[in-house]
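Quick question, first post here. What does this chain look like in 3D?
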Amino acid sequence: MINRDYILRLAEAIGRELSFILKLRRRDNDEEVLIYIDDVLLRTVGMTSRFLNSLSDEMLVKALSPIDRLNVEAALWIASLLQEEAAIYTARGNSSEGYYRSVKALALYLAASQQEPLEEAPFFQERILNLLQTLADYELPDSVKQQLFAYYERIGHYGKAEDIFFELLEHGKTIALLEQGRAFYQRLQAKNPADLAAGNLNEMEVAEGLAQVEKLL
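> Answer (accepted):
Ran it through. Tokens below.
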């Protein structure tokens, strides 16, 4: 695991680049900004925006995991810069390009959070929250919802995790997904009532959720 101090230093380095990008955007020359973002991508991860956006979310994560372990630093640089591209395309009225870049960025943030304590870096937490707000009116791919399900549980937002779980169930009640749900509720049963309440669930809701999953299984 990369240590917390490194995550914070990385957040600071990315934040400096994003501050400069914001200054460029104030010149109202989007093409200049997109070229600069491409230059930063080449400098930091050795890949262009065009190449990164040609890959599916799953393929991009795999490309950044050459030894079955995500290159977290590269993932966070790419996520942050694609998020900036998304904002530019959305502002220009190209919501489709904005959506796809936002989803890729979210998938990378969530993948990185599985390995490193991004919740301890307010910078990345705010970036993730902004993406979730941006995508609130859109349907997310199931692969991203799976990541979001795990992410919400990890940061203690149990009610939101449950909501995502039931959204996934609507798309297909597979044995694997139901087993995930059962394990989720069993983990919640070990939490104390105060922790559950902080995560917007209570013991009765956990018991009801587990019973529902058991019935489906």
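The chain is about 75% helix and 0% strand.
The chain has two domains: 1-136, 139-217.
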